[in-house]
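Posting for a labmate who doesn't have an account.
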Amino acid sequence: GVQTCALPISVKLLWEQWYGERTFQQEPLYPYFVAVSYTLFGHNVRWVFLWQMLLGIVTNLLVYLVTRRYFGDLAAAVSGFLIVFFGPLLFFELVLLRSSLAVFFGILVVYLVGSALLKNKFTWWILTGIACGLALLVHAFFMLFILGTIVILLFLYRKNRMQMARSAGGLILGTFLVMAPVMIRNVMMDAPVMSLSNTGTLSFVTMNNAQYNSN
């Protein structure tokens, strides 16, 4: 949190208002992921690293499958080889940060959107929406992916409104099912309904303050 102990009361209150005292400090899925690991296996970070490494294996497989679907077997083999030996991904799998989880969901939602387009079923779009909702709880920037997917669906099915409603509706419904508990929590805590992180406000305030010391 922000260190405000030496500040006047009026400034503290202003900081609390800006910072969002009852808002998540960051998107909550990764902290909950760590908390569940600690609850099940004790406060040993190695178990978190183990799960991150397992998700990394699935990430490698998804990269291969997505590349093969759109670019063929040769490109898939090359991409699979590159992702297996991709140093930054290996590094973040052994660090207590959400980066590896964000990469996993990034490729997962791409794979599921492609599968939903092929299957062309309402249940597949709900499943894809659930994955998108979980991705949103890892990083708020996945909202851009969700909105972009909806725009693509509106364009693809512009001549078939029933299909448009089924696909876009399933995607939105699945996302809402995941977001509903967070929205209920925010209402109960008197926080903005769709708020997932307060770091954006903090970054804006500090980076636009000429007297802020970044050291």
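Reply:
Got it, the structure tokens are right above this. The two ends are 17 Å apart (CA to CA).
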